[in-house]
Specification:
The chain is mainly β. The protein is built from 6 helices and 34 strands. The strands form 4 sheets. The protein has a 16-stranded mixed β-sheet that branches. It has an 11-stranded antiparallel β-sheet with strand order 17-18-19-20-21-22-25-26-27-28-29, sandwiched between helices. The protein is elongated.
Length: 533
């Protein structure tokens, strides 16, 4: 029996798809001088003038003279612009983290891609851990000053005091300590529209979106959170600013917030996963916990309890939730002699809900699928599928029950009313609904572009398109053996587009960058490389 595809599962699978293939990123930095600029490979070498575009490596120092400037481009496209009379050192260039040193002068950084959660900048009085994308930093005579246009900076002074600097805020750090963060004055040149995407988005968003954005600016950030930001092209040729925030509300839960900023729209969403017990700080291990929740020969040590995927354009929204019962021992011998008894969730409840002004009452459950063992009928597995009927009422389309130890019943699961002994299929009458979703591959065969559509008996339609798209807007082609989309960190994104007749001509279109999960993994594998918080 076909059912609607579960977005929450698809999101998770795509986010972890890259983990097995990612390789180390190159560490070279490209320097482009603007005026009189010097460099040296180490502090023991002599300064030499830079004539033109030059490749630098770890340990190199750059010095700009008065009225000169320089631009450094990292391997992921991030940029650091040095102002006049600056002294800057590439102390560490590493897959885990990069450490820079601004001994004097001023810089403006545009950190994007995979580097956005793994950069620190040191001055004589402070260390700034980059958790954002655009910021300024200056150092002069013991005074370090910094301001953030987008994202977060985590700052620590020489006495070990910490502060979190967020969008549109400034901070001063002196040898004796740091001041409190302050909002950038609207008269300040740094308070331009381009540096205030969150403020602009908050004015456009509904109350729920505004509340979510404020939560992201909360200073009580936990130590195992991460943030990522980058500029990409979506599958339809539009430039998109992606921002992501990884939160740990509890030891057994994580929440991924993802925002997509375009010139003419703002879409966002979240993915929540909750488990029975505490999960590792390295979230790439979570996939194994989920896999172990099904068909394990022994009782799992931990298991998934709840998944929620929520996507919105700030007006319309779709929420899909999956609630899991605890694993129970079930004899599945009817499915094969070698299977025997396995641990499987006692119940699974999947619900899809649409929300928006085009829906009477503001929300509507479109589809529900429940599964249980021994609850509907003792000793039997039960599946109940509910959909909207012609009268717009959520009604049972089919209720299937089977004895998992009965091989003959299992063999006839798709036999309709002819299930036979141990297998029962009770159809609701007159729904006029085909549970099979209509599918298509809009970008052509072999392309990672999958569209599923459903039309209900009441005339409502829902479609979900999922694409794997590179930062340059190219849909991944599985037939191309030379494609390196999955071998470069931060090079592809999952785009999800949701359409419905209930959205009044609007759509939801979000992009999710999976590398934030790997960034968290890197941060936890060697905590000594990170500033304590």
């Amino acid at each position: 029996m076909e059912t609607l595809k579960v977005t929450a599962h698809a999101v998770w699978a795509a986010l972890f798809l890259a983990q097995a293939a990612w390789a180390a990123a190159p560490s070279a930095v490209i320097l482009v001088p603007r005026g009189s600029v010097d460099m040296r490979a180490s502090a023991s070498d002599k300064w030499a003038p830079v004539a033109g575009r030059t490749e630098l490596g770890q340990g190199y120092e750059v010095r700009t003279r008065a009225n000169a400037a320089a631009e450094l481009t990292l391997s992921d496209g991030s940029k650091v612009a040095l102002g006049p009379s600056s002294v800057f050192t590439l102390e560490t260039l590493d897959r885990r983290e990069s450490l820079f040193n601004l001994a004097a002068g001023k810089l403006r950084a545009f950190i994007s891609g995979f580097a956005s959660s793994r950069v620190r900048v040191r001055t004589p009085t402070a260390v700034a851990s980059v958790r954002g994308t655009e910021f300024e930093l200056s150092s002069s005579q013991g005074l370090s000053e910094m301001s953030v246009a987008e994202g977060h900076l985590e700052v620590q002074d020489n006495a070990g005091h910490n502060a979190v600097l967020t969008s549109e805020e400034t901070l001063s750090v002196r040898p004796e300590g740091m001041d409190k963060p302050k909002l950038v004055s609207l008269k300040d040149e740094r308070a331009r529209d381009a540096a205030r995407p969150i403020a602009v988005a908050m004015e456009m968003a509904r109350d729920q979106t505004r509340s979510m954005l404020e939560d992201m600016r909360n200073r009580e950030l936990k130590a195992n959170e991460a943030q990522l930001g980058k500029d990409v092209i979506d599958a339809f040729g539009n430039r998109v600013r992606i921002e992501e925030y990884l939160l740990r509300p509890a030891a057994n839960e994580f929440k991924l917030l993802f925002l997509s900023f375009r010139d003419n729209r703002f879409d966002w969403g979240h993915l929540i996963e909750r488990f029975k017990y505490k999960i590792p700080d390295d979230l790439t291990q979570v996939a194994a916990i989920i896999a172990g929740s099904y068909f394990s020969r022994t009782m799992p040590s931990n298991w998934i309890k709840y998944i929620e995927a929520y996507l919105t354009n700030t007006v319309d929204a779709v929420r899909e939730t999956i609630t899991y019962g605890d694993p129970v021992a079930i004899n599945f011998s009817g499915f094969g002699a070698g299977i025997g008894t396995r641990y499987y969730p006692a119940s699974i409840d999947y619900v899809q809900t649409l929300m928006g002004p085009g829906i009477a009452g503001g929300s509507k459950v479109m589809f529900q699928l429940t599964q249980d063992y021994g609850t509907s009928t003792v000793g039997q597995m039960s599946w109940r599928q509910q959909v909207r009927n012609a009268g717009d009422v959520l009604t049972t389309y089919a209720h299937l029950r089977v004895d998992p130890t009965n091989a003959a019943a299992v063999a006839n699961l798709n036999g309709g009313d002819g299930c036979g002994s141990g297998c029962y299929l009770d159809d609701a009458v007159g729904l006029g609904f085909d549970p099979d979703t209509r599918t298509a591959f809009p970008s052509g065969p072999g392309k990672a572009d999958f569209l599923s559509s459903t039309k209900y008996a009441n005339g409502d339609t829902v479609s979900v398109e999922k694409l794997l798209v590179s930062n340059d807007g190219e849909v991944f082609d599985f037939r191309n053996p030379t494609s390196d989309t999955f071998t470069k960190e931060g090079n592809y994104n999952l785009e999800i587009v949701v359409n419905s007749s209930l959205f009044q001509g609007r759509k939801i279109d979000v992009l999710i960058a999976p590398e934030i999960l790997s960034a968290t993994k890197q941060g936890k594998t060697d905590s000594t490389k990170f500033t304590p918080r």
